[in-house]
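To whoever is on call:

I kicked off a structure prediction for a single chain this morning and the downstream step that reads the tokens threw a length-mismatch warning. I double-checked the sequence; it's 290 residues and nothing unusual in it as far as I can see. Pasting both halves so you can look.
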Amino acid sequence: MNTILSTPYPKSTVFKFVKFLAAISLMVTFILVVFQPYGTASFSHAYKYLILAGYGIVIFLSGSIFFIFINQLLSESAKDRWTVGYEISLLLSTVLISQFACFYYWVWLFDASISLKSFINFLIVAMSVSILPVGFYLLYIYQKYRDVQHAISSTGTAAGQEELKNNFFDQDTKQSNPDERNFTIAGTGKREKYVFQSKNLIFIVAEDNYIIVHSMENQKLKKWMIRATMNEVESQLNADFIRIHRSYIINKNYIDHITGNVTNTRLKLQSIDGELPVSRGKVAVIRQLQ
């Protein structure tokens, strides 16, 4: 099992992170307006609630700009191996920048003097307001991805690269047992390649610009994260696999049973708890596979 900081995590897209910042901003605004902590209850002004809501707006704008800037600086290899630790560092940096912005908003609004003492006091208050939503977010991402590992690239050695280049596309025809067929999944940018056995791969689920591959290895379910989109992956799979939903690709050999009607069809896979959704346009095709 991964430690919390080394747990693989699909790096947030700009859109996803901006949505998260919007939620944080709304929560901060709600706390300030409804509960009015740290003396804000005694604060009197004709535009009091608008002023308090301004902190949420400042958090959203400053955090979004900072995240977009940092996202442009990150290397492709960093995005390939993104972890909860990296996500926490980026999140806390964004929060800190937002709090700097809120401090200068407070200084501008009340014509206050800038000093180290006033900034530290403001930072303590700001951190106490934001710690709850940030803490819930960190707990959520760890619980969701704690069993996921980074897929091991076959391009890690020169020998592995040469083998993939010269031999891979002949491999399926050389193997006598179709259950032993191997295939590669190339990550975004095609720099990283990951080899899987067709018989072991149960299903793939999309996570923004990443995928989580669920495979059975030594009678244990493994989850592997790869930076690639579903469209990129779908074009690389063999005939054993079919896309049943915009977020799911399954191995047809693992289908157990199908339930529901055309508008709410669910599919159960062997060795997997729970059921997967089936898109309406795929229902007829999937039922023929039973």
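Update from on-call: the warning came from a stale cache, not from the record. Cleared it. Sanity check on the structure: The mean pLDDT is 83.
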